[in-house]
Amino acid sequence: MMSIITSLGAPLITTVAQSDHVPLSTAEWMLTVTLLTGALATPIMGKLADGPHQHKVILYSLAIVIVGLIIAALSQNFDELLFGRSLQGLGMGLVPVCMAIARKHLAPDVAAKTIATLSVTVAVGVGLGYPLTSCIAEFVSFHASFVVAAVCIATTLTLAARVLPSNKGASAQPFDMVGTVTLTAGLVLLLMELGEGQAWGWRSPISIAVSIASLIVLVGWVLFELKATDPLLNLRQVRIRNVFAADLVGFIISMAFYLFLPILVEFVTIPPSVGYGFGSSVFVSGLLLLPLSIGTFVASKFAPTLSTWVAPRLVLPIGVLFFVAGSLGFVAFHTHLYEAFLVSGLAGLGAGITFAVMPGFIVAAVPASDTGGALGLYQLVRNVGLSIGSAISGLLIAHYTPAHQALPTLDGFTINMKVAAVLLALSGIVGFVLIGGAKGVGSRTAEVERESGYVSAGNMGIDDEGEGA
């Protein structure tokens, strides 16, 4: 449900720009502000989920999301809408929390499949959220889509309160306030630069100053976290080969994902009079992502089985091949609308396999007590990757838009897809090389922990209930 809420902004950008009389670049902050809040919330919520407040984190977050949806539904101007969207982004941090719950309370084989499913909810939710939002916006109003979403999240809150187990038995851990504030400042500066750099001018004094400031703050945060006794994110986990591989590959694929996704949706709405595009309605452009959603879900269910058929180092490259086929397929075939639907489905298969297997490598490599924090870092680098991918996409579109023209040339779309394909190929190579010695999902955690110097119940062969693992 939260991934659907996150995707609410994309199909509405043009509608909101016209309705609230703001430039298109300003309206795009509907996506940026949600992603920014989600990036900031993810590590904090992942850390809190490792302690006794896990249940409260989920319920309070969903309640705040509902408030944000109501504010957006009742908004009278763009500022109010933007504030509502910022509150909605808090729910993006729930993914690592749910993964931590799955690992603690489910049998290992069931937990692995559940975590794989949770990992692909972003892609699945986008595929469902786009057509849902487009349908409501086209036939009712864009405010109505937030009303429907609020009802859905209220239902989700009720189910979460009734069904999800608590974590009251867990010991409370010190909270790293310095690390939290520093990371927040660094990410705000970084995403501000990505969102506004083009408007400021990449070589302007303010753009350069913000870039340098974000770099200094984030480097300072990394150095502080490495020395902290109870850090917000245990960056020492990145020394584990599989954790580093999953984080790096997740970052690269997320960049490629947002080079691919918005471009495909925008292309089909371009009027054919320009020389390309299909002039499709907002509703049809939303339906375009249904194959992606279906392909992602189906592939995520198949991914754990694939891990037992082939060597773990081959699983990521196999998923990447589908994704590359989708990106390059668009470059070669974009003259008929059905081709766009096929490309969407191929990308969905790739996203399903790659996003499903990566958290498994992390879960198998860290103690159960650190699952929330480790997956929080993974989700953080994915969110930042999405932001950077979106910025690169905008840069390429702007570069291939002729002066005094509103729309780019065809190269603006095809180059985006080629860059996505290159990044995806790079991620496949990185995964193949770095996961060379991995045992995959379900491998014994203790062996990897010993390599990284962990001293915990996990590497003594003791599980959460005190029994031999």
Provide a compact summary of the structure.
This protein is mainly alpha-helical.
Explain the layout of strands and helices.
Elements: H1 2-6, H2 13-19, H3 24-27, H4 29-49, H5 54-74, H6 78-88, H7 94-105, H8 108-119, H9 121-139, H10 142-163, H11 177-200, H12 205-227, H13 241-269, H14 282-287, H15 290-309, H16 312-332, H17 337-363, H18 371-399, H19 410-434, H20 445-452
Characterization of the model:
It is built from 20 helices and no strands. It is globular and about 65 Å long. It has 469 residues and is an all-alpha fold. It has two domains: 403 residues, Growth Hormone, Chain: A, CATH 1.20.1250; 56 residues.
CATH superfamily caption of the largest domain? MFS general substrate transporter like domains
Low-confidence stretches: 437-469
The overall number of domains is: 2
In total, the number of strands is 0
Keyword list:
469 residues, mainly alpha, disordered C terminus, single chain, Growth Hormone, Chain: A, 2 domains
